[in-house]
Design a protein that fits this description.
The protein has 174 residues and is of the alpha+beta class. 22% of the residues lie in helices and 23% in strands. Strands 4-5-6-7 form a 4-stranded antiparallel beta sheet, with no helix packed on it. It has a 3-stranded antiparallel beta sheet with strand order 1-2-3, with no helix packed on it. The longest helix is centred in the N-terminal third of the chain and has 22 residues, at 3-24. The model has no long low-confidence stretch (mean pLDDT 80).
Length: 174
């Protein structure tokens, strides 16, 4: 055998002897019980006395500095440890806005002219290709002619109760 083999054999022999010596001279031969982390025994086993960690005669500040904070107990419900996570603050849903009250639709007809007979006015309207004649108080579809001025006509929309004005130009020349 060469010198290298002798050194390796000697190192092996020393390590086996040391392992056997530490095994036979063990001071603590007690077997520690296995405890569940969430149980009362597990919490008691987790508490560490800081005086055992600190060297003998250590000041009180060092002893309190060596104390470990109590570890919180994990929640019982399972969660995905590797799931997607966002650090953004969750957006609150906007409050439901009350719907606007219904509006009257635009007038479906246009003004084409007026006729004054004995102080009573008849207004002529055109809806598509259909001519319509209306007097004060008459119904025109969903609308009712409620007011007539020389420059405008005012209609009341029946379903919504809103008033809709129609400009008819300047006052007639007598």
């Amino acid at each position: 055998m060469n010198r290298r083999g002798l050194l390796l054999g000697l190192a092996l022999l020393v390590s086996v002897a040391w392992s056997a010596w530490t095994l036979t001279t063990s001071q603590d031969d007690t077997v520690q019980a296995i405890v569940r982390p969430g149980s009362e025994a597990g919490r008691a086993a987790a508490r560490v006395d800081s005086r055992k960690i600190a060297p003998a005669g250590a000041p009180e500040e060092l002893t309190t500095a060596l104390e470990l904070p109590q570890r919180p107990i994990a929640p019982k419900q399972q969660r995905n440890l590797f799931g997607a996570y966002s650090y953004e603050v969750p957006h609150s849903r906007p409050l439901a806005v009350a719907p606007e009250p219904p509006h009257a639709p635009p007038l479906p007809f246009v003004f084409t002219g007026r006729l004054l007979v004995d102080g009573r006015a008849t207004y002529f309207l055109l809806q598509g290709n259909a001519p319509i004649s209306a007097t004060l108080g008459s119904d025109v579809g969903e609308f009712k002619l409620v007011e007539a001025a020389p420059e405008r006509l005012v209609f009341l929309h029946g379903p919504t109760g809103q008033r809709v004005a129609m400009s008819i130009g300047a006052a007639p020349v007598n």
